[in-house]
Amino acid sequence: MCSLQFVLKSRGISQYVVLLLNCWFICLEITRWVICGLIGFLTGLIACMIDIAVEKLAGYKYLAVKQNIEKYTELGGLSISLILWAVLNSAFVMLGSLAVAFLEPIAAGSGIPQIKCFLNGVKIPRVVRLKTLVIKVFGVICSVAGGLAVGKEGPMIHSGAVVAAGVSQGRSTSLKKDFKIFEYFRRDTEKRDFVSAGAAAGVSAAFGAPVGGVLFSLEEGASFWNQLLTWRIFFASMVSTFTLNFFLSIYHGKPGQLSSPGLINFGRFDSDVSSVFIVFRGVLGALFNIINYWLTIFRIRYIHRPCLQVMEAMLVAAVTATVSFAMIYFSNDCQPLGQDNTEEYPLQLFCADGEYNSMATAFFNTPERSVRSLFHNPPGTYNPVTLGVFTLAYFALAVWTYGLTVSAGVFIPSLLIGAAWGRLFGILLSFIASSQSIWADPGKYALIGAAAQLGGIVRMTLSLTVILVEATGNVTYGFPIMLVLMTAKIVGDYFIEGRSRIPGGLYDVHIKLQSVPFLHWDAPPTSHWLTAREVMSSPVTCFNRVEKVGRIVDVLSNTSTNHNGFPVVSDTTENDEPGKICGLILRSQLIVLLKHKVFVERASSRLSQRRLQLKDFRDAYPRFPPIQSIHVSQDERECMMDLTEFMNPTPYTVPQETSLPRVFKLFRALGLRHLVVVDNENRVVGLVTRKDLARYHVGKDGLEELHLAQT
Amino acid sequence: MCSLQFVLKSRGISQYVVLLLNCWFICLEITRWVICGLIGFLTGLIACMIDIAVEKLAGYKYLAVKQNIEKYTELGGLSISLILWAVLNSAFVMLGSLAVAFLEPIAAGSGIPQIKCFLNGVKIPRVVRLKTLVIKVFGVICSVAGGLAVGKEGPMIHSGAVVAAGVSQGRSTSLKKDFKIFEYFRRDTEKRDFVSAGAAAGVSAAFGAPVGGVLFSLEEGASFWNQLLTWRIFFASMVSTFTLNFFLSIYHGKPGQLSSPGLINFGRFDSDVSSVFIVFRGVLGALFNIINYWLTIFRIRYIHRPCLQVMEAMLVAAVTATVSFAMIYFSNDCQPLGQDNTEEYPLQLFCADGEYNSMATAFFNTPERSVRSLFHNPPGTYNPVTLGVFTLAYFALAVWTYGLTVSAGVFIPSLLIGAAWGRLFGILLSFIASSQSIWADPGKYALIGAAAQLGGIVRMTLSLTVILVEATGNVTYGFPIMLVLMTAKIVGDYFIEGRSRIPGGLYDVHIKLQSVPFLHWDAPPTSHWLTAREVMSSPVTCFNRVEKVGRIVDVLSNTSTNHNGFPVVSDTTENDEPGKICGLILRSQLIVLLKHKVFVERASSRLSQRRLQLKDFRDAYPRFPPIQSIHVSQDERECMMDLTEFMNPTPYTVPQETSLPRVFKLFRALGLRHLVVVDNENRVVGLVTRKDLARYHVGKDGLEELHLAQT
């Protein structure tokens, strides 16, 4: 597959060629760095744009509603305010939902499950197109401004990935424009590398956590740890957070005061963590996932028409506004207005002058701000009852919201629920321990609670710890946060999903619902005595070195065997005995060959015909035409095709006695898609694909699968 | 090699066995976590111990010298003070150097090159023994307390690695004690995983940078990115920094005030980085490496007797004291003593009352404190001339010191030189730009200068950025630090070493000097048209499935072919034609088999003989007896040995046309040591080992090697 192997088949090259090649490799590497820088820059810009747009829109909305409420508080027609609020919310959400439902359904949700699959090596159509990006950005602005219980952080990861895919390919199908640059990178592995850089840049911009971004990409995507690649990913992340920081500082009128590295900033915590505790919040997180699982199944079954989806989204928006309003209305938790006035929209409502309604702080605000106030407001800001009711209401809303046909993330709602719950716990603890000063700061409980809730929902341990540590800017919190996340994961994994058979994190739930052949990190422990022979697909469709065009077309057209890779064998196998392996050729390569009619007969008859070049393969990437679109006449069907110079001459093979864990390791470590299984005469006996492996990877259900395999 | 494959050869196992196995795997995983926690805890404790010991000893020393100086400043016999200082320094250094030179020479230096090699898969004898640890800790306390231009951070990494190797094996050869626990982990791969966790814990304790530690381990060691392993490494790092933090807070009398996560803390920087610049400091870093390279060669040639080594170390200590004293003596840079009194040992000398000698701040202090004051002292604290002279003197001392027969790290001296130089630059810039406030804080230049100097010397980009970002506690500095490090690396790599043929970083210099077969990340770019056939060692010594004991003994005893892995072939090869591959057996396995005399004849004659078990292999690990120690009688030489059930039945193989980059990738991604090369009949034609690959990996010398390969 490597172009060099194509070009330099002939040996005895002069030293100048070698020198030239060296230069070429250096240029290539520099280009990769430049692309990564661009990816980071553009991702940072997009994050900045989203942030400013949301802030402006939400600002106008809250101002209008606030003035309206203030007007009607005395007059006594608050239902009008409620209606205004609900209508404003629904209008925003409708816009976003319409765009998503009718123009690009793949832009719904946070996009993280899709990116996880993409990085895992599973192709999902349309996920990294420019159109998806535009809809996503528009959708997320609408849904956050519309007051839904969602965050704008998850979509940033998807946005970064799309930017990366677009920039690195140097062309856009949506715009029908080919810039004729970066053509070397038009292949799966390179594209995937850039997409992981983009995802990292997205995380970095969302949370101001460049290292967390790198670890996220590695945790989800990379299998082979390549140092240079990691540096590039890190570079993209750094550029991204720096760009965001820089432009936001200009927007806030303080250029150079780089104080907002991410879309959400937790503010700084000091180092005193003597008051750290561990909450077993995995249970609540798991509950979230289970309810959401059933809800999503319900949605897949009944709400599959775009109109219905838009209406559901609007309904949720209106209900959110109503619930918020009711909570604020019925709460009588008044707090004195501080002179520093940290609240941007303090609602007085029925409170005395100089006081404000504290429930309104939580609801009448973008979720990011609410999280910050839960973390940092001084003790005594919140009434425990207020917090309790808020947690429950927000939990219900968040569960309902995730999975709607809008672009939205689940990070911030999780953090908010956890922070509220954690702060509540902290307040209760301080009641019990009365006047002990070490229990003094409920903001820290809020932080730990937020970590636990988020961990229970998404079940990432490593990258999440780093993201949270970077967001708090204090490494001392790392250890408690890590313990909490691990506890949440273990509790969630073993006590809840272990029984209900719903996979771990929320993203895995959604991946499972889309039934994607997702490969996990390790082979299941019970697979040690399964061998390649039992896992492989067999019999395999093989081609000869020189194969009849008719047979190739037939095989490719046969929908029941839609394989993507075909072993090439050396001698014809008349008597059903498998032939000796001599290469592997991909469906896409065959299609390009057929399209250009690279037949043996033609080559000899018309010498002038231009040789097929690497460029032809690249230009067709990544949307190879389907076999049906290629017309092959009856005459041509009788021609022969010589696959020798196009196939991969040294595909990875394993003997059929190889154990499943070893096969698994090869797949993961080398990023394989096909592995040829041979007997000890090097004859092809089977082919292991991702699907074969994914079938055997079921974690706790290993027993059952084993049983199936043995019968 | 996997025990399961040994145990469960027979199929049709009941479900209970599967359940049991599942439990066993979970137990194993829990044990791994417990071990990692222990590693982190012990590493943190050791770091704490070193810190306290150094602080106490250095404190006594400086106090004594200070009193002496104060006494003689007026009397006028300062040469006595100088002698006192030099003697004290030399005494400390002598103790440390004696221990290292006579008891455990491998404990010299920072140990980072050795750990790099270990993680790369190269075995270096005695590097992870308990004795090495004890000497290392003692040595580093002595050399830092002895005032050498060294740091205690590098040795922490080595210490962490030794702790890990010891704890994970559950026994100690130095103590001759076997705790009979963790026997499952007595194998190369598991041990290496734990050692990487230990190294990470060491970095984490040294710099308070747990994420940096993880990345260091990954950058240097891991090739296959395993998620669970990374979590464990992260866990060990977290525990380590937390332990250190906790115990130091108790030591400082403020339990719970967790403010010292690492041995060195940069203190907190605020976010205003508008005054960031890039210094091309790679040149100076490279200069350091080149001088040190020649010096080390000189040392290897001439100073190889322990006595000489100790004397050199003492000489350096005395010279350091003299130079420092002279600098302080001839400097007349007096600064007013602030009321906050940040200096611990302010020396008045010839300054007016209420002032102190600012040169003394830099020299009369542990290097960690000096770095901190360079970063954080307010503008105007230092005179530019003082700084310039200090930089030059300290540079010379540091170059001379690294490579002495003492335990010592190079991080802190590099940081100190860079910080001084950077601050100097900052001050000069503020002279030029006169009263502009944005150039105001030279402390930031100090930080950037420190990063550049360190980057130029050690040439790590990724993990160093993260370590420095974590140490400063501000993610905003990440981008400038990364740019500086990259610049330093590029400048250093291309403009200096590109011509002088000395490899990149200081550690690589020392690795090269020890001529270790170190594998880099990628195959050299010019290797694309080399194939496995040209790289492999050939002919290969193969064994038959059932082989004569005499032949095995002869092959193992033959020192000219000291291979470690032998392919096992199916049919005897009388006519020199290679046999078909059916397995791979290791030297160590053969030795254990010979030791236990597992001969075919014996098995049939004495049925009562106990079967050889996995345990026998584990107990012998890692110090397998040499072949000479195994006595095989003439009769026994005629016996046969059946290798079938002990060999690895499915070794990784490649066809001989495989390109070198692909071979390289397999080696790195799967952590191989041997790769069997076969022809298309599956006959063994060669064997690729690490040495074969290392020979072809020479970066910029690719041309020459290629030439060699073609002739």
UniProtKB/TrEMBL annotation, chains A, B:
Residues 647-705 form the CBS domain. The keyword Transmembrane helix applies. It is found in: Membrane. It is a multi-pass membrane protein. GO terms for molecular function: chloride channel activity; chloride:proton antiporter activity. The chain crosses the membrane at residues 35-54, 82-103, 133-151, 194-218, 230-253, 273-295, 307-330, 385-404, 410-433, 445-469, 475-496. Belongs to the chloride channel (TC 2.A.49) family. This is Chloride channel protein.
